[in-house]
Amino acid sequence: MGYPDYESEKEILIKFNSPDSWDGVQPVLNRDDIINLQAVARRVHVDESILDYILKVIKETRNVRYFQLGVSPRGALTLRLAAQSRALLEGRVFCIPDDVKEMVLPVLAHRVIMKPDHIAEKGREEEILREILERVQVPV
């Protein structure tokens, strides 16, 4: 699609600076809706094989030669909850391996720390996490 031309971009800057530019925006969820969805997501079933899969992925982040620091137990908990939330959004009451796989990058990439001698390889965290996903056996 590309970028807008100069005049179009200037028009965007002018148009979206007015106080009434957001008047028509209505919330789709309120606070209670969000709290309820969070509670429902926590009830999505996670089979023991999926928990084992999550833990194997987490363990691999701690054993990669590029990472000084792998994912913490809190990161593992967050990955499980993100997988549960994704399953819910997909209309399921149970997690599948794809829920975990889809959430690994957005949940874990900022939770690992590269070793100092690899720090210049900015953005490599995601590539390494993808490699981990390829190595760890997916439960059937």
Description of the molecule:
By secondary structure, this protein is mainly α. The protein has a domain at 47-140: Helicase, Ruva Protein, domain 3. The protein is built from six helices and two strands. Strands 1-2 form a two-stranded antiparallel sheet. The longest helix is centred in the middle third of the chain and has 17 residues, at 73-89. It is flat.
Q: Give the overall shape, derived from the CA principal axes.
A: flat
Secondary-structure element pattern, one letter each: HHHEHHEH
Q: Which structural class do the helices and strands define?
A: mainly alpha
As for the CATH topology of the domain at 47-140, it is Helicase, Ruva Protein, domain 3
pLDDT averaged over residues? 92
Q: Could you estimate the helical fraction of the residues in percent? A: 55-70%
Total of helices: 6
Summary?
With 140 residues, this protein is mainly alpha-helical.
Chain-wise SSE layout:
Blueprint (H helix, E strand, L loop, with lengths): L5 H10 L15 H12 L5 H16 L3 E3 L3 H17 L7 H12 L4 E2 L9 H12 L5
Antiparallel strand pairs: 1-2
Helix pairs in contact: 2-4, 3-4, 4-5, 5-6
Descriptive tags:
140 residues; Helicase, Ruva Protein, domain 3; 2 strands; two-stranded antiparallel sheet; mainly alpha
